[in-house]
Amino acid sequence: MPQSQTVAKGVIEGYLERMPEAVRDGDTVTFDAASIYYKHLNEAVRDEIAGGAKRIVLKNVNGQRYIGTGIRERGVKIEVHGCAGNDLAMFMGGAEVEVFGNAQDGVSNTMDDGKVVVHGDAGDVLGYGMRGGTVFIEGDVGYRVGIHMKAFEGKVPVMVCGGKARDFFGEYMAGGTLVLLGMNSQFDEQPVAGDFLGTGMHGGEIYVRGTVEEWQIGKECGVFTADEDDLARLRPILEDFCAAFDMDVEAVLAEPLTKLVPMSHRPYGKLYVY
Amino acid sequence: MKPITLERPTYTEEAPYKIHGGCGLTGICDESGARFSGEVPIRSMAVQRDRGNGLGAGFAGYGIYPEFPDHFAFHMMYHDIQAKEETEALFDQWFVVDLAEPLPTRSVKGVEDAPLLWRYFVTPDPSKLEEEQSDEDFVVHAVMTINAPVDGAFVASSGKDMGAFKGVGFPQEIGHYYRLDEYEGHTWIGHNRFPTNTPGWWGGAHPFTLLDWSIVHNGEISSYGINSRYLEQFGYKCSLGTDTEVAAYLFDLMLRRHRLPLPLACKALAPPLWDEIERMPEDEREVMRALRAVYGPGMLNGPFAIILGFNGGMVALNDRIKLRPLIAAKQGDLVLVASEESAIREIAPEPESVWMPKAGEPVVARVRGMEWPIHGDLHLTPAEVSCAVDGTEDVCEIVESLEVV
């Protein structure tokens, strides 16, 4: 058992006081996030971006919330080394976030644009209400992934998860594209998706590599096999995904994809409207 | 066992307003039985500081009183000296008290208005036990008698070789206030509170305990009314004004008194949905139907993630549709569970595995070589599970009380 090397006092009281130190190298800025309170860390990141930094490297991140939140500058990239805290890239505009480690709950909450790449697993409510941009998760994801994703005209969010998902994948989905591959998973025995897949879906499309049982699928979904046209649209997305995680796109496409689309854009119209 | 009561104003601590939010949990168990400092769970909780709002925090440690392994350790909270005197009079009536002392504390910025905090190492007076009454049943009765009728006195914990340390503050403040860095245990659980429906007060902080069981909880138990009425039939009185209390008593009822195997007790609290039960193989389906019928009023409705600590390990469990966060990890002999992965990595930076437990399926840590206080095997066949519930076959340990239910 590791004995306490740092006292919790240091973890918390120090971390409430201290600003992280910026190490600048051209337009790259590096911060050591160890024991830095999330507010100070995010403040420092925003200041550096306002000052013209293009690449922000955050080392020793452990649970700091809201990294990348609300950042709208295009051409800016934030690298997170460690465990990204809740609501990573929430409301994010045009920036890019890459996580080397796992991400906690609420990644890309209401994200508007930009790109998030996670070299690891991600937690629950991933992409909640997401309305634009791209999310690539290498491994497993949690419950309620893609809940209420939406699209409008040219803004179509895309999410690809390389591992397996738990219940309520694509719940109440209103738009966008959700792809679940089930390939990079630590749960060998479990099905690629959980129960209530696409329940309440009324827009967008879900692709699941392989097949799913009928009882898993929400009543509002129509079930098809992805055809030539679908695959032609998906191929560039999957190529991009495979490039991020050093995977072979042909291996991904070696199995057919199950396609779920809503049968109605107002599945509960009769339930709530009289 | 009648408490002494004198006329005086009733003690209440209702919060004047309601705050919405979540809570933070941590549970750390060294399965080798090696004991480690209380500073470890404090660090894990400090990372999750923002899951609470300073209106409640607490810890429970196991293996912390090796010098009193067979005594029931009562941690007491008293609103005033009269509550202490009334309680101590009851202790003298019921127990042989081998040590009574103030709980060691240090002054910490942020912690104020603490009640009087005392601990007692006691054994039940054998002459006071009713026929066939176990020491444990006697202690449960004592706890209920103190909590409800003795005004301003609350039992923080009452188990053997364990203790709960809780109050109003952030976790690192409460942990340091109780000098947890000076204790060592093999299993610790911790909580950071963001009170939602009930007051943030010292007795209402988590963990909630009874005998060796301790519970920390994130969520809302909306079945509290049904659960507490059900528990009343078995002599449990819910008097601490927080929903989590029912979970502690339900585990005591199912695991200790009904001798239900752990997986079944967990399924009773977070049962599979009916359509999932319909898809099960026949024998398992019948067990689940029986379980939902027998323990219907024990089902916890609403969102929850809970960690149950006890002497010998811990169990973490989510509600069936995963409405609260929970993550688990293993590093060497350590099993860790928490609301956030960062709370685990603060203690175990390089775990061999980190995973999100499936909703409704318990994560179990068991200290090797310790007597397992839970009856029944962890991996029963459906047939064995079935007879534990209906109590018809003598090949397994039977739940006598189930026939009465």
3D architecture notes:
The complex is a heterodimer of chains A (274) and B (405). Chain A is α/β, with parallel strands linked by helices. Chain A has 2 domains: 106 residues, no CATH class; 155 residues, Glutamate synthase, alpha subunit, C-terminal domain (Pectate Lyase C-like). Chain A is 18% helix and 24% strand. In chain A, strands 1-2-3-4-5-6-7-8-9-10-12-11 form a 12-stranded mixed sheet, with helices on both faces. Chain A is elongated and about 55 Å long. The relative contact order of chain A is 0.08. The N terminus of chain A is likely disordered. Chain B is α+β, with helices and mostly antiparallel strands and 405 residues long. Chain B has a domain of 270 residues: Glutamine Phosphoribosylpyrophosphate, subunit 1, domain 1, CATH 3.60.20.10. Helix content of chain B is 27%, strand content 24%. Chain B contains 12 helices and 18 strands. In chain B, strands 8-3-10-1-16-15-17 form a 7-stranded antiparallel sheet. In chain B, helix 1 runs antiparallel to helix 4, helix 5 crosses helix 6 and helix 9 packs parallel to helix 11. The two termini of chain B are 26 Å apart. Classes of the chains: A alpha/beta (274), B alpha+beta (405). At the A-B interface, helix 1 of A face strand 2, helix 1, helix 4, helix 10 and strand 17 of B.
